[in-house]
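ingest -> validate -> predict -> emit
validate: passed (alphabet ok, no gaps, 152 aa)
predict: started
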Amino acid sequence: MTEQTKTRFPAPLYAAAGAGDIAVEQLRKLPAVLNELSERATASLRVYNEQAGTKAAELRDKASTTDFEALRGNAASVATSFAQIAQDRAVAAYTALVARGERVVGTGVVEAAEVVNADIETTEEPAAIEAAEAATAKAAATPKPRKRAASK
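emit:
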C-alpha cells in the first residue's frame, strides 16, 4: 500500500484530490477527443460494413470446431493472473493519486493560509483583541448569584 505521510490529512483525501485534478485535466481535452473519435468511428463503420458478411461466416465455422472444455480450464488461470496484474496497477495508481493530491492540497493549503494571515493582519487591531480578551476574562471571573431553594 502507500507509506504513511507526515501530514495532517489522510491519504484517501489526497487520492481524491489527485483524482479530481486528473478529471479536470481530462475534461479540458474532451472536445478535441470527441471530434477525433467521431471521425475514426465514421471511417471504421465503412470498413466493418464491407467485412461483416465474411467475418460472420468465419466465426460460425470456428465456433463449431472449438473445444470449450479446454477454454474453461484456461480461463481460470488467465483470470487469476489478470487479477494480480490489475491489483498491482491499482496500488500503483492509488499511490500516484495520493502523491498528486498531496501536491494539489498542499499548494491550496499554503495559498489559503497566506490569504487568511494577510486578512487577519489587515483587519484586526491588537488593541481590539486584547480588549475582547479582557472582557471575556472579567465575565468569567464574576460569580453568578445562586438561586434559593423553595421552602415547603
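The chain has three helices and no strands.
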